[in-house]
Specification:
globular; 15 helices; FAD/NAD(P)-binding domain; binds flavin-adenine dinucleotide; alpha/beta; 6-stranded mixed beta sheet; Polyamine Oxidase, Chain A, domain 2; 451 residues
Length: 451
């Protein structure tokens, strides 16, 4: 690396930023990572619970681990973080009447849902929502079918009624076997940043990005400035949508228009830590179908929210190599939004009571009160403002290529964009964040080293 080479600035110390820094360093290019928060990780947040257990409240799984070319897997291997592939028993589904569904019943309904979801909408004519298609077609099947179909909302982040049926699953992402980083996801980012030898500046929120004669100039909310020949911006799409980061010259209309069309979804996880495991210890997860048909509203109590939602409760004892006595309650879209209003202390007891009321029939030991309950509020997080970009939404005139467009550099290549929301096929995942960071680093390496 030449001491005269101006460093590249990277805004954001999440997976995209860390992957970009490491790839740049492999090309001998120094970078400085500017991070608004007092921690690295972004939408990866590994929390140490009492007892020393690490729980990921943001991303937790490396999706599509079985494929050796998976960018997230490759990055973990490169920095020496072991990945654990859990082998639990399958999940259990509790019906709308509270009774446990048989595995045959669940398999039958899931096959029906999979068939409907796999249908392709014609490219021409009016698009319909996935909700309309699924719910209309499932009406003649069991009352559990629609509720079970809503498990798709956990990953999607938006209600089925908002998802375009035309573009559903047109992405070529990494699916299949899930693996968990031993000790938590954050360690991969931590080690990648250390290996890159990038200077990481925490508590450095960027509010202004300007094109200069020789490159770019960034200003923080505290008034500090940073200059470099190039910058890679990895902040979430939802943050860009707020307009809190000003650009000079302003972003072209086509880019801001594109930004408005992209949807960002919600997902939160609420952890319940116990002294002992009282639920079936080897079962991967428990799906609780709603026992009430009431709509969630701002007046809903914690119990109302839970009763009206299809909820997945992950058994971390069976999934994590640390075997923590932890149930992780996944709160999708509408439930996440409303639940964020309650404090951890206020939500813990009603969530525990609800989970117990549904799982009591399969309890294998005496139920104990939780030691603590905890949630990370992604929608309220000023630097995330939601979980991830969602599948293409209906009524927003969005097209699959929009996300790739959001990843296109501007200002003659001086202003680059990375992050999960800049890759059509890999959006919404760590894999996408890593791939986008590496993509931008490669682009800059070609530019800078080719000079
Ligand atoms: C609850 C939940 C569960 C998930 N589960 C999975 C999973 O199991 N597997 C999976 O693959 N993916 C999962 N994801 C998605 C995954 O977490 C994200 O796709 C990925 O972490 C995004 O990385 P990123 O680098 O693009 O963005 P981020 O991680 O959001 O990084 C962007 C960084 O920019 C910083 N920033 C924002 N504004 C500014 C500013 N003005 N100045 C400076 N810095 C700024 C932020 O603080 C942040 O650190 C999950 C997400 C959530 C929320």
């Amino acid at each position: 690396m030449s001491p005269t080479t101006p460093p590249v600035l990277i805004v954001g110390a999440g997976f995209a930023g860390a992957a970009a820094a490491l790839r740049l360093s492999e090309h001998g290019i120094r970078s400085v990572v500017l991070e608004a928060q007092d921690r690295i990780g972004g939408r990866v947040q590994t929390v140490q619970l009492p007892g020393g257990y690490s729980i990921d409240f943001g991303a937790s799984n490396v999706h599509g681990y079985q494929r050796a070319e998976n960018p997230a897997r490759r990055l973990a291997e490169k920095v020496g973080v072991e990945l654990h592939v859990p082998k639990p028993e399958g999940g259990l589904v509790f019906g709308t009447d509270g009774k446990l569904l048989s595995r045959e019943q669940v398999a039958e309904i899931q096959a029906e849902i999979a068939k409907i979801l796999a249908e392709r909408e014609p490219e021409q004519g009016e698009d319909i929502s996935l909700g309309k298609r699924v719910i209309e077609q499932l009406q003649s099947t069991s009352p559990e079918a629609e509720a079970l179909a809503r498990t798709a909302e956990i990953g999607a982040g938006i209600p089925l009624e908002h998802i375009s049926a035309r573009y559903w699953k047109t992405e070529r992402g990494f699916a299949g076997v899930d693996a968990l980083p031993v000790g938590g996801y954050r360690e991969i980012i931590d080690k990648a940043l250390k290996k890159s030898e990038a200077e990481v500046k925490l508590n450095t929120e960027i509010e202004h990005v300007e094109q200069t004669e020789s490159g770019v100039k960034l200003r923080t909310v505290a008034g500090e400035t940073y200059e470099a020949s190039h910058v890679i911006l990895t902040v979430p799409v939802a943050v860009l949508q707020t307009g809190r980061i000003a650009f000079q010259p302003a972003l072209p209309w086509a880019r801001t228009d594109l930004l408005e069309r992209v949807s960002v979804g919600s997902l939160d996880k609420f952890s319940l830590l116990y002294s002992t495991v009282w639920w079936p210890s080897q079962v991967a997860n428990f799906v609780l179908l709603p026992s009430s048909s009431s709509e969630i509203s701002p007046k809903s109590s914690v119990t109302d929210i839970l009763e009206s939602t299809t909820i997945m409760v992950a058994n971390m004892h069976a999934l994590s190599p640390q075997k923590p006595p932890v149930l992780l309650v996944y709160l999708p879209t509408k439930a996440a939004g409303e639940m964020e209003k309650f404090s951890d202390a206020d939500a813990t007891r009603p969530i525990h009571d609800y989970v117990v009321s549904r799982l009591a029939v399969v309890a294998e030991a005496e139920v104990t009160a939780p030691i603590e309950g905890r949630m990370v509020r992604w929608k309220a997080d000023r630097f995330a403002l939601g979980a991830t970009t969602s599948p293409f939404a209906i009524g927003k005139d969005a097209k699959p290529d929009d996300l790739d467009e959001l990843g296109r550099p501007l200002w003659d290549g001086k202003l680059g964009f990375a992050g999960e929301g800049t890759d059509r096929h890999l959006r919404g995942s760590v894999v996408g964040a890593v791939a986008s960071g590496e993509r931008e680093a490669e682009r800059l390496a070609n530019l800078l080293n080719g000079r």
